Amino acid sequence: MMDGIILKGYRPGVIGRLAELHATYYYENWGFDLFFEAKVATELSEFLSRYDESRDGFWALSLNRQIQGGIAIDGIKAMTDGAHLRWFLLSPEVRGRGFGHRLMEEAISFCKKKDYKRVYLHTFEGLDPACHLYGKFGFELVQQAEGMQWGKKVIEQKFELNL
């Protein structure tokens, strides 16, 4: 089996595939519905439509010519609010094989090269493997509260990494 390849930037089909991966995983495990899938697809499309390599980063994991995950750094407010790490997800077939670590390394390395001072992400309580990985990279939980930004009531969390 071929090793996973990290692709930088937009590729045809990546928006649909990452929206599908998010929608399927979060529906099966958390009961998220159309609201969530539409939010992911819309926001990812908007991000890639205004993508600027001088401030933004986007990487997709390709394994056997199929997108199996991705991660993004939205740098539009990096100098004021921090760089926003978004859409980090791997398909169930490739989890536990170090690909998440590789994607996270790409994203954090990009932020360091851009001299960003802070990286933040939003998630919710219960995504333990992802939170464990965030901790390995030095992210710290800075906020936690009940919320509905993804269309279902969860304990939302904000993690930050000071670089």
Short description:
The protein has 163 residues and is α+β, with helices and mostly antiparallel strands. The chain has helices spanning 14-30, 34-49, 99-113, 128-136; strands at residues 5-8, 57-63, 66-74, 83-90, 118-124, 140-147, 154-162.
SSE layout and pairings?
Blueprint lengths: L4 E4 L5 H17 L3 H16 L7 E7 L2 E9 L8 E8 L8 H15 L4 E7 L3 H9 L3 E8 L6 E9 L1
Parallel strand pairs: 4-5
Antiparallel strand pairs: 1-2, 2-3, 3-4, 5-7, 6-7
Walk me through what this model shows.
This protein is an alpha+beta fold. The chain has a domain at 5-117: Gcn5-related N-acetyltransferase (GNAT) (Aminopeptidase). Helix content is 35%, strand content 32%. The chain is built from four helices and seven strands. A seven-stranded mixed β-sheet has the order 1-2-3-4-5-7-6, sandwiched between helices. A hairpin with a 2-residue loop joins strand 2 (57-63) and strand 3. Helix 1 (14-30) packs antiparallel against helix 2 (34-49). The chain is globular. The relative contact order is 0.16. The mean pLDDT is 95.
Low-pLDDT residue intervals, each spanning 5 or more residues: none
Superfamily (CATH H level) name of the domain at 5-117: Gcn5-related N-acetyltransferase (GNAT)
**Total number of beta strands:** 7
Strand-and-helix sequence, N→C?
Answer: EHHEEEHEHEE
CATH class of the domain at 5-117: Alpha Beta
Strand proportion, as a percent range, falls in 25-35%
Structural class designation:
alpha+beta
Q: Give the mean pLDDT.
A: 95
Report strand order across the widest sheet.
Answer: 1-2-3-4-5-7-6
